[in-house]
Amino acid sequence: MVRTLNELSVEILYEENIPESLKYSKWALKLADSLDYDKGKAYAQKNIGLAKYYQGEYIEVMDYWTQSLQTFEEIKDTLGIANMVNNLGAVYYSQGSNTRAIEYYLRSLRISEKIKDTLRIATALINIAGVYSDTPKDYDIALQYYNQLNPYLGPLNDPQVRTYYLMGIGEVYFKKQNFSEALKYYQEVLPLAQNVSDQTESLLQLGKLEFQIGDTEKAIKFLEQAKLGAEENNQQLQIVQAFTELGKVYENNNSSKALKMYKEAETLAKQMGVKFELKDIYKGLSKAYANQGEYSSAFIYQGLLLATKDSLFNIETDDKIRGLQFDFDLQKKEDEIGMLEQEAEISELQAKRQKYVIYGTIISLILVFVMAVGAYSRYKYVKKTNRIIAEEKDRSEKLLLNILPEETAQELKQNGKVAAKRFESVTILFSDFKGFTSYAQNLSPEILVKSVDYYFSRFDEIMDKYDLEKIKTVGDAYMCAGGLPFPTTDHPFKMVEAAFEMVAVMEEIKRHPKEDIVPFDVRIGINTGPVVAGVVGLNKFAYDIWGDAVNVASRMESLSEPGRINISENTYQRIKDVYECESRGKVMVKNKGEMEMYYVSKRKIIRHAKSKEEVNA
pTM of the full predicted structure? Predict the structure, then answer.
């Protein structure tokens, strides 16, 4: 029965009925627990995590998949271990943590090679190659991993695996601008593609490749086929992409037709709200109107392009606070616009502004002999454009300072990257809300978002008060640190004071309720130790910290109680002369063993300071 329930949960998930799938997988988990049937339990945990993955609830995904991996390890199920390690790598990859993703994928590859599981080996190689293909300097490494698939493709005889292999290599060669080589691989995909999505994607890529090579006739043929297939199968996004690529093909030789294609794409993209596609469409419309000499329309769409880019730039920051509206996303909304591109974009906008000012001046000189009013209107329009660009630059710089510490932001602007730094003593705090998941299922997203925004805004004010650094928020979790980016000695005391005030914020709402603000109980965990801090990734990057001290702080929070401040031995030794603490003894911590923990109760009344810590306090 456990096996049947697990299989049902997977089949129902493929039908995209996530709640029903979760019902069966949770039923399987409960029954497997009662039977002490570990293998069924491991697969139930895996299937629950898979459903959560489709919902974008990555914190719960990591929890269930880590539990599944541990269960597989306990029963020494090597195939299950390889599968779960590979899945965990996929989660890290989806969040932009490519280094951690590679670690898990390589572990999956080693295990799969050991048990000679050809399908798992092929899957791991494709995943590793896919990560390396994200970075230009690693394109050749990606090709090496794709080429390692050759011995396995024949024995597997799996059209889906071969499709991913061919599309992966084709994508790398496309990025390397070796279009003729990319064309060979995408041409092989067409007869293999078994599902509509792969077939449409390969037709789109073939059209783009033929256009790059210079064969516009073939490019149009492939893109029209892609558009037709997408329309027949209601693939709205692919329809938009096909119209956009057709616009690019017609741009230089038939501007009227290019405008028609771009306009079709614009109408559909607006209905769908796909801003990444609108960015390319507005860019194409601006160029097409300029080619026709309609500079006013070109300027309008150039302004829309700038506004869309700014909107895309803000999406990542907004989602960190309001992630509930996109299924409580972590750090994801993947891979299109990164903050590292902002300085280059600003320079590009300035260059374009100067070019358009020149165009405007020439046109104004011509029109001044025809109509003085036209010249005056042109002058006002150019002046307004200059002001908009200056405002956009100022907004971008303010946003950069809002996301990164000032020192880090300045280093990023000057050098284009940020060097990692080690801090020998930093205090890290984690907090989350008790019962948050059940609230998320039963209340409207608007009320939840408003509540989380209220609490996190109050927490931000507390961080500013004590000169502590907010690191990130993930769903209902809040993470901050003291002692960086400038080292200090009083960060443990400041962090404890901040924790007291965070608890007080939660209690205040219970005593004096506010409209549409849900009262929560908060759990808080604190640890002190060395960390490495820096900025990771090329796209959607963020300031973050790593190290065992961070992991221990997270464990302190998960093992705390509502309304309590749970601290580690490291933090206790630094604050014990100033605060009264209640020993919890040794508590078992997952992957760490037993650790001493303490609840911070209150400040001591120090009348005659004796120790250095008391004097400082």
Answer: 0.46
